[in-house]
């Protein structure tokens, strides 16, 4: 504004100075021409400003006269606002990335309990599709009566446990609803499927250990009470010897269970085994010698063993796995059955130890659970054969520690094939 007044004053001064020489009319004409020139220049400047206003992200036009003092602070403020918005967007993006990286699911709802956003974990937990489910009521998306009763409460002091089916798999989710902001709600989901399985396994393990030890303890206590309460002369030497043998048998059974439990604990303490090359041919031969003794000539053994094939690992663990598979085959194969023991190198460089029998076989529904601790297809028959119910669990852990796979193929009444397949990285030749 000051520059404009100064310019008008200059043109007026020029007209006044020229009036004595050129006349008053010439002075006024010069003053009028100056004003017209200023109006024309101002129009051009306003036109440039008008074009800039359509793209305010660009720097303002230079040299627009008195408008420079107006445009400069506006542009500086606009640039500062853009920087602040960019910084806020960066923070928001960081928060969104952090929310996406959360191991728990996060779902935001508006005041009408309609979905506004969710992270990928929540999509996996509940099967949400943000593109199609946004704006829909959470009660139409998560159709669980337990959740509906929980969400319609006035307060939510704790989470609710839901059991959902998603993609054919059952999941256990802890769902916590929390209000935040103004009329907004947050749902946090946590997958506790594995935790529930571990808790069930722990309970089953405690129950199974108690059950397995209770039988021999009952027998032992029964015989001890009998020997204590009966007069010494009422039992013959033969009866005493029989009672002592039965008690010794039950004590040895408890020792075997405890030994196998300690073995399992040792195997679980480290995920992988190092070791050195083990001549598996010798290990299998030793297991076969013990197998012949256990069989007592009642079975036919067929051997196919590569003597020079070695596995890098722990010999005692490998010997335990080899013996467990062979012992199971002997125990569950009827008299005159055939047991085939093989140790060979496959075409793709893997080493395979397999035990095939013509025994009673296993029903298909029982095969996935065979490696569980204390799982028995036929409890009565298993105890009669002297097994602890831990052999295949030990074998599975030995296989895992040696990066091997334990495969089981069987058909009820038609025999079984158990195989340990070791990766090429652990195979060597003697």
UniProtKB/TrEMBL annotation:
Main location: membrane
Matching SMART domains: HATPase_c, HisKA
Substrates-to-products reaction catalysed: ATP + protein L-histidine = ADP + protein N-phospho-L-histidine
Chain ranges passing through the membrane: 5-22
Enzyme Commission number(s): 2.7.13.3
InterPro entries recorded: BphY/WalK/GraS-like, HATPase_C_sf, HATPase_dom, His_kinase_dom, HisK_dim/P_dom, HisK_dim/P_sf, PAS, PAS-like_dom_sf
Domain Histidine kinase: 208-426
GO biological process: cellular response to phosphate starvation; phosphate ion transport
Record's keyword terms, sorted: ATP-binding, Cell membrane, Kinase, Membrane, Nucleotide-binding, Phosphate transport, Phosphoprotein, Transferase, Transmembrane, Transmembrane helix, Transport, Two-component regulatory system
A GO molecular-function descriptor: phosphoprotein phosphatase activity
PROSITE patterns: HIS_KIN (PS50109)
Signal peptide coordinates: none
Places the protein is found: Cell membrane
GO cellular component: plasma membrane
PANTHER family: PHOSPHATE REGULON SENSOR PROTEIN PHOR
Reported function: Member of the two-component regulatory system PhoR/PhoB involved in the phosphate regulon genes expression. PhoR may function as a membrane-associated protein kinase that phosphorylates PhoB in response to environmental signals.
Protein name, as recorded: Phosphate regulon sensor protein PhoR
Organism: Pollutimonas bauzanensis
Top-level taxonomy: Bacteria, Pseudomonadati, Pseudomonadota, Betaproteobacteria, Burkholderiales
